[in-house]
Amino acid sequence: MSELERIDVSVYTVPTDAPEADGTLAWDHTTLVLAEAVSGSHRGLGWTYGAPATAAVISGQLAPLVTGRDPHDTSGAHEAMNRAVRNAGRPGLISGAVSAVDLALWDLRGHLLGLPLARLLGGAARPVPVYGSGGFTTYSAEQQERQLRGWAEEQGIPRVKIKIGESWGTREQRDLERVRAARATVGDRVELYTDANGGYRRKQAVRLGAALADQGVSWYEEPVSSDDLTGLRVVRDAVLPDVTAGEYGYDPAYFARMVPTVDCLQADVTRCGGVTGWLRAAALAQAHGLDLSGHCAPHLHAHAAAAVPNCRHLEWFHDHVRIERMLFDGTLDPSGGTVTPGADGAPGHGLRLAAARAAEYRTG
Question: Catalytic site residue 203?
Answer without folding.
Answer: no
